[in-house]
Amino acid sequence: MLLHPDRHLTVCGLEEIAGFRAAGVSHVLSIADPGTPAETYFDGFAPHRRLDLRFHDIIDEMPGHIFPTPDHVAEILEFGEAMALEGESLRHLLVHCHMGVSRSTASMLMLIAQRHPGEEEASVARLAAIRPQAWPNTVMIDYAEAALGTKGRLRDALRPQYRRVRDEQPELVAMLRRVGRGREIPAD
Predict the structure, then answer these.
(1) What is the pTM of this model?
(2) Could you give the CA distance from residue 146 to residue 10 in angstroms, rounded to a whole number?
(3) How many other C-beta atoms can be found within 10 angstroms of the C-beta atom of residue 97?
(4) What's the CATH class of domain 8-180?
(5) Where are the beta strands (DSSP E) in the chain?
(6) Residue 140 and residue 38: Cα distance in Å, rounded?
(7) Quick one: three-class SS letters along 134-177?
(8) Residue 7's pLDDT is what?
(9) Could you read off the pLDDT of 84-125 as tens digits, one per residue?
């Protein structure tokens, strides 16, 4: 079970990865922009299972950018199923993206929710405990909702998280607006 107390769950950005070399990472979900060489970031890590995905952190299609797709989400959820089957070999899951805020947190949330169906609010709370600045990419969450059959409950559970981050981290919200993700920001 992914939330077993003996399992470590980490979300981080590219610049933080090196700090986990000696942390006993057994599984890595690496999500970065196309062209980012994941292999060099994991030099010095013990052998681990890794899924590398490359797409941009966008919520609207843009020329020259790779949009997140249902296939990306399916690969993430298949990775989650494989981890569940591996049981005890899962000691420490590290999920990263460029900043450790959006693609990685969307991925961690869907992996947690996958293991704990019907516990969407608790899944979001667990994500916030792991990565307080979490701002999951809404396109990825929408695809995960369809794949997991949560019928909008993940999005509903995320609203307080988005509001909290909006209120506590105005610099992150300003950056989201600059990169065309303003429609994700709750108005109330």
Answers:
(1) 0.94
(2) 25
(3) 26
(4) alpha beta
(5) 8-13, 27-32, 49-54, 92-97
(6) 21
(7) CCCCHHHHHHHHHHHCCCCHHHHHHHHHHHHHHHHCHHHHHHHH
(8) 66
(9) 888 767 889 999 999 999 999 999 999 999 999 999 999 999
